[in-house]
Automatic annotation (TrEMBL):
Gene3D superfamilies documented for this protein: 1.10.10.350, Glutamate-tRNA synthetase, class I, anticodon-binding domain 1, HUPs
Matching CDD domains: GluRS_core (cd00808)
Record domain Aminoacyl-tRNA synthetase class I anticodon-binding: where: 338-485
Known function: Catalyzes the attachment of glutamate to tRNA(Glu) in a two-step reaction: glutamate is first activated by ATP to form Glu-AMP and then transferred to the acceptor end of tRNA(Glu).
Main location (coarse class): cytoplasm
Organism from which the protein derives: Halanaerobium salsuginis
PANTHER family according to UniProt: GLUTAMATE--TRNA LIGASE, GLUTAMATE--TRNA LIGASE, MITOCHONDRIAL-RELATED
The reaction(s) this protein catalyses: tRNA(Glu) + L-glutamate + ATP = L-glutamyl-tRNA(Glu) + AMP + diphosphate
Chain's gene name: gltX
Subcellular location, record wording: Cytoplasm
Motif ('HIGH' region): 11-21
Entry-linked Pfam families: Anticodon_2, tRNA-synt_1c
Protein's UniProt keywords contain ATP-binding: yes
MF-aspect GO terms: ATP binding; glutamate-tRNA ligase activity; tRNA binding; zinc ion binding
Protein name: Glutamate--tRNA ligase
RNA sequence: GCCCUCAUCGUCUAGGGGUCUAGGACACCAGGUUUUCAUCCUGGCGGCAGGGGUUCGAAUCCCCUUGAGGGUGCCA
């Protein structure tokens, strides 16, 4: 047995994983890896109505994409398994039994309707909804009676009379005190035979030897209940840290089944780079304190301290993510960006599957040119289109008028001639051509550039002319120049 | 309602009694580079929620108010 620290990421597979959950995974990963500890991936699937294998697969796939590798857990294995809660029922039952025997739990036969009634009444009287404890001291005869009536009991945790205040020590927030008077005899086993969240986490975290529990702020009020269970079972308490929430544009908690696409998969599909999302998520609720915000995984890991995490919620700012992702796209190896961009090009019907090998260098040249224009790779086709399709004018009549302008003919013919005079067209050589053109011809710069751009690309703006021309090559440029002149007639 | 938490530019944040006429990043605006767009560079706009204390001195400490968020489930 080592004294390695052990952390866990325990999502429930009840929806597609989004940045809120993933940021929690990220911080756990950071703390674990930084200190040479272990990260456990546990699947909390006790909500039978909503949990699906599909969502579980998505969680694993997206963690993998971001490089958040667990050391142990679902899909990996380990000595503290199984790691899916539905496969640990016998374990929960055993501890529930123990609680029942030691008097820390009791069976409750109240129906959902009765409980709802109780809640409604409490609300009407401006009281906090608390279970009234009606089943707390049922005799065996009474219990038999309920069972005979076909009622299936739940198990409730009996609040220990000796506990007055429960103090949660939090690595980020310091101490938080809860009076047991605001707690009630909460359910630990549902009538469907499943443990509740508050019960299962404690058993699992204790048995899996978790040393640090880092989770969202939305779990703060669960913590005192869990601490009571730890104590009742004689388990050692882990350290807790509650992260500030990631908020939507309305400053509300991100919803797992919400409408806004903050799902990790959507970022992947839109061509965000994992290291950009990683970097961005790390900066939600945490910062290095200095001015550089583009940080590698290693830098983040080296500088991350859980105690430095903020206490207040952070709004998810897509604009800033876009900026950061664009930075990463421009800084990345071209080959990688090309590989990642090709599917988008195929999807947009700009190239065929068959062409990608023969056209590879040409595509790479184009992608390299247009990457400066995009925030994410799904935007590549729109930018690359003009290089991969026939020319089309937004406004043919206006273009024709432009081509009919004074000196245009001269500019085009001189340009053509110079293009063929070079044995190679690169940004540099094309740049020289334009310099010569300006010097030799007595025309304004606008008369050179604007009609030329319009003739070649059909658009009024776009990538630099030197790139445009060197990408198209002399023949294609000449062809387009000629046909532009035809339009002017 | 009750419990808990939080509170610096529109957003993400630095700041932990004097060096703060509050620093950076995104966004926005302007200028430069590119005779275009974008990239890139420079500059600008913009904030300590309010009120009381404590102190020689408060963005920083305390209290109250206000606001926001979370919880209040046989969801996790």
């Amino acid at each position: 047995m080592s004294n390695k620290i052990r952390l866990r990421f325990p999502p429930s597979p009840t929806g597609k994983i989004h940045v809120g959950n993933m940021r929690t995974a990220l911080f756990n990963w950071l703390v674990a890896k930084k200190k040479g500890g272990e990260l456990v991936l546990r699947i909390e699937d006790t909500d039978q109505a909503r949990s699906t294998k599909e969502f579980e697969d998505i969680i694993i796939r997206e963690m993998d994409w971001l490089g958040l590798d667990a050391d142990e857990g679902v899909g990996i294995g380990g000595e503290y398994g199984p790691y899916r809660q539905t496969e640990r029922l016998d374990i929960y039952q055993k501890y529930a039994e123990q609680l029942l025997e030691s008097g820390y739990a009791y069976k409750c036969y109240c129906t959902q309707a009765e409980l709802e009634d109780m809640r409604a009444k409490a609300k009407a009287n401006d009281k906090m909804p608390r279970y009234d404890g009606s089943c707390r001291n049922l005799t065996e005869a009474e219990q038999k009676e309920f069972e005979a009536a076909g009622r299936t009991p739940v198990l409730r945790f009996k609040l220990p009379a000796e506990e007055k205040d429960v103090v949660v020590e939090d690595m980020i927030r310091g101490n938080m005190t809860f009076s047991t008077s605001v707690l009630d005899d909460f359910i630990i086993f549902k009538s469907d035979g499943m443990p509740t969240y508050n019960f299962a986490v404690v058993i699992d975290d204790a048995l899996m030897k978790i040393t640090h529990v880092i989770r969202g702020e939305d779990h703060i009020s669960n913590t005192p209940k869990q601490i009571l269970i730890y104590k009742a079972l004689g388990f050692e308490l882990p350290k807790f840290a509650h992260l500030p929430l990631i908020l939507d544009e309305n400053k509300a908690k991100l919803k797992k089944r919400g409408k806004d696409s903050v799902y990790i998969g959507e970022f992947r599909e839109q061509g965000y780079l994992p290291e950009a999302l990683f970097n961005f998520m790390a900066l939600l609720g945490w910062s290095t304190g200095d001015e550089e915000e583009i940080l590698s995984k290693d830098e983040i890991m080296a500088r991350f301290e859980i105690a430095d995490v903020n206490k207040s919620g952070a709004v998810f700012d897509r604009e800033k993510l876009n900026w950061m992702n664009g930075k990463y796209i421009r800084a990345a190896e071209l080959d990688r960006i090309v590989e990642l961009s090709i599917p988008f090009l195929i999807e947009a019907n700009l190239v065929s599957e068959a062409e990608i090998t023969s056209q590879h260098d040409h595509l790479a040249r184009i992608i390299d040119e247009v990457r400066t224009n995009v925030d994410y790779l799904a935007q590549i086709p729109a930018e690359a289109e003009l290089f991969l399709t026939e020319r089309s004018f937004d406004n043919p009549a206006e273009a024709a008028a432009e081509f009919a302008g004074e000196d245009v003919k001269l500019v085009f013919s001189t340009l053509k001639q110079k293009l063929y005079a070079k044995d190679q067209l690169t940004n540099e050589t094309v740049g020289e051509i334009f310099k010569e053109l300006k010097k030799e011809l007595d025309v304004g710069g606008r008369t050179i550039y604007h009609p030329t751009r319009l003739a070649i690309t059909g658009k009024g703006s776009g990538p630099e002319m030197t790139s445009v021309i060197s990408i198209f090559g002399a023949d294609e440029v000449a062809k387009r120049l000629d046909s532009a002149l035809e339009m002017a007639k």
